[in-house]
Amino acid sequence: xxxxxxxxxxxxxxxxxxxxxxxxxxxxxxxxxxxxxxxxxxxxxxxxxxxxxxxxxxxxxxxxxxxxxxxxxxxxxxxxxxxxxxxxxxxxxxxxxxxxxxxxxxxxxxxxxxxxxxxxxxxxxxxxxxxxxxxxxxxxxxxxxxxxxxxxxxxxxxxxxxxxxxxxxxxxxxxxxxxxxxxxxxxxxxxxxxxxxxxxxxxxxxxxxxxxxxxxxxxxxxxxxxxxxxxxxxxxxxxxxxxxxxxxxxxxxxxxxxxxxxxxxxxxxxxxxxxxxxxxxxxxxxxxxxxxxxxxxxxxxxxxxxxxxxxxxxxxxxxxxxxxxxxxxxxxxxxxxxxxxxxxxxxxxxxxxxxxxxxxxxxxxxxxxxxxxxxxxxxxxxxxxxxxxxxxxxxxxxxxxxxxxxxxxxxxxxxxxxxxxxxxxxxxxxxxxxxxxxxxxxxxxxxxxxxxxxxxxxxxxxxxxxxxxxxxxx
Length: 474
What we know:
The protein is an alpha+beta fold. It contains 15 helices and 24 strands. The chain is elongated, with a radius of gyration of 31 Å. The protein starts with 11 loop residues before the first strand and ends with a strand.
């Protein structure tokens, strides 16, 4: 048993198992929606979290709990998480903890303070479980019941202030998220650059920019075709092979919003030289390695940001098999499978020459046309997300195809205006990012304060008052 030093003289310390009893939950034989037979709530993990049971059981001899009982998650990744009961039968992954020597709220807060200790010392392969020996031997400081209630009152008073501060931080964070969404919406609709457009009426229109993009797209295709022929030992005798080129079709704009003067709607196929995706290492017979080519997965592609802190690595041979999806700086990435569909980021130098898995699309734009940053911000805007969600197919796991991406319609502003829009977005989002970092720092600070309050409380270091208003210790 780990020791607790410097406690008040009138406190005692006992192993938790000597002071508390634990009753493990049990799954009823017949449980499901409420019915004439199933009348007793079954408190599974969902009901534990929400306080709203959705599953019920017929009356029987099963461990039960009441509303204010202390429950702890006994099995699973969150083993050690403590909460309050809901009247009903205790779920099979939960346990009730109670003590005749401790106020239930005092016990609740103490167990909350021990979550990291319990959760980091679980046992079991596959599914972790609370280790009973670890749990029973946690030193439990036991002051008098009056002192326990005073400690609880002080904890709740300090937590109330802390919760209010955290709630304010969350409100500011939510407001920043809404502000960012509004900035992107205004940017891709031309509202951010409205004054600039009026001051620059003679800017080259997007129609001329598109002509150059399409010409460059064809030139890229011809270059690639010539390289293929030469690799096969063939030489071009005439230009008939050029007729194989397929001009990308224009978008159907009948249902699209009107764009500012000088802008155009384009299908992504028109503005890109490549739209592809990667592959699973398992499919290609590769295992992850400590050092190798960077391998970007969907969890690395965030909302407008590439997280390179947890990029995996593969042998260089993977690029030989999946040459089509080798990354270049400036490529736009788009998640196309699972819950993270629609997240987009730009390839940075840290992952240049790397590759992606089958859940990430690589969009390579024609140079000098649609800017990669503009496209990325458009893809994560509400405007594009509506399109992406319409294309999404839910078969076992949500996904969108490469042809769906090619069909996505994006606004094409004049080249100079794109630069102005990027400057305006950067100016605004730089401020919000700084504020978001400050909020995250304060959220972490609040959690440290919460742990500090627990530490002081269960060492007898909180300044508390008894019922007569006199300070008992500090």
